[in-house]
Design brief:
This protein is α+β, with helices and mostly antiparallel strands. The protein contains 13 helices and seven strands. The structure holds guanosine-5'-triphosphate (GTP).
């Protein structure tokens, strides 16, 4: 994997980039988790007007609080129901982040209408900005963190501006319960929100790096088996919707143990990298390629098994006809491969059934003498 020149440049580039499909899938799981946390927190909010009522508060205030708490709970249930749809709604994380931040601003605005200093000096409600920014980390999308942080800073700055502009004497904004409101404290709060955003964005970046590393094969840079098994169900789901056919190919370099014996393990590694590049050259942009074991690769090709066979067999002939020079001075090496194909959905509707069929056909290709592509059972 290529590193960008400057760590900060790399961080910003990665944060602003669309995350990898597997990352987005994990992020959809994070969205559901956030929706569940929001539902639990909202249920706790219901207790606040009841506590106020027990404390002898004004019945109108209690009823208003109750109505607001019910509304917050109803919204939390709506977000939860939408989050259960997985990645069907790409706008959902943005909608919920907007909701979380704007709800915090709305409560602060309400407080400021009762007592201007309460609106901008309240610590507890203000902390919900920080929570709203922090939980975007669970969605694995840096763009969302930057959006939520930016929104919180803009909304809070607007609220502070409004409170100071509306005050008759801004220098004497004092409250018995909330102390003195000063411009410097408010600037500090805005800086804290910025720090929270940068911190959360850095966590997202690190998480993305870890997921990317755990889903990649270190030698070839291709996705590995874990990544492939996460990704395949989504691809099958998308293809089911548009009714296209797919072909899974299990591709295996022939006699690789002998190649290792002849040119050494490092030479074998070079062969693997060269072969991975050759396969990648054949795959279309939206087709999958992964290294799932030693000398074993999986390709997911678009189209019926017949045309996939033609493409792979053409590649097989081309590879067998070329010679690979592992290192200057070495003897040129002839590489061949065998492949077993399985058609989706005819040979299996899931990853494991397709891999099983493709493996049987690969074994058949090896039994029949290697250097061949098998697309149906003997
Ligand atoms: N250089 C190198 N060799 C590897 C790597 N992973 C696995 N191998 C070797 O790949 C070889 C696989 O051998 P086999 O499973 O017998 O397969 P084969 O020799 O290709 O035989 P057929 O598949 O039947 O054609 C073993 O010698 C492994 O040590 C790797 O990352 N680098």
């Amino acid at each position: 994997m290529r590193e960008a020149g400057h760590p900060l440049g790399d961080l910003l580039k990665r944060l602003l980039a669309r995350p990898d499909e597997v990352m987005l899938e994990l992020g959809a799981g994070g969205e559901l988790l956030v929706a569940r946390i929001r539902a639990v927190l909202s249920a706790l909010v219901l207790a606040l007007p009841l506590i106020a009522a027990a404390g002898g508060s004004d019945s109108r205030e209690v009823l208003t609080g109750m109505a607001a708490a019910v509304l917050v709970n109803a919204m939390a249930q709506v977000w939860l129901a939408l989050a259960r749809g997985g990645r069907q709604r790409p706008w959902l994380p943005y909608a919920t982040a907007t909701y979380d931040v704007t709800l915090t601003s709305a409560v602060l605005l309400l407080l400021s209408l009762l007592d201007p200093v309460a609106g901008i000096n309240s610590m507890v409600v203000w902390c919900f900005y920080a929570i709203a920014i922090a939980i975007t980390a669970l969605r694995n999308d840096g763009r969302l963190t930057l959006y939520a942080g930016g929104l919180a800073i803009v909304q809070y700055a607007a609220l502070v501006g409004y409170v100071f502009a509306a005050a008759e004497a801004p220098e004497t904004l004092v409250s018995v319960d909330y102390g003195t409101a000063s411009v410097s404290t408010q600037v500090e709060r805005l800086v804290l929100l910025l720090m929270m955003t940068v911190l959360t964005a850095t966590i997202v970046y690190r998480m993305q790096r870890l997921v990317a590393l755990s889903g990649r094969d270190g030698l070839t840079g291709l996705p590995n088996r874990a990544w492939l098994l996460q990704r395949l169900p989504q691809v099958f789901g998308a293809s089911r919707n548009v009714r296209t056919s797919l072909t899974l190919a299990l591709v295996d370099i022939d006699d690789f143990a002998r190649i290792n014996d002849e040119i050494g393990h490092l030479g074998g590694d070079r062969v693997l990298r060269h072969f991975a590049t050759t396969l990648a050259g054949m795959a279309a942009e939206n087709e999958l390629l992964a290294r799932i074991g030693g000398q074993e690769f999986v390709m997911l090709l678009h189209g019926p098994i017949g045309s996939a066979w033609e493409r792979l067999d053409r590649l097989r002939r081309a590879v067998a006809g070329q010679r690979f020079l592992p290192e200057r001075g070495d003897d040129a090496l002839r590489i061949t491969f065998s492949a077993g194909l399985a058609a989706w959905p005819q040979d299996g509707s899931g990853a494991s059934s397709l891999l099983k069929v493709a493996d049987q056909r690969l074994k058949q290709a090896k039994r029949e003498g290697r250097n061949r592509v098998v697309a149906r059972d003997a």
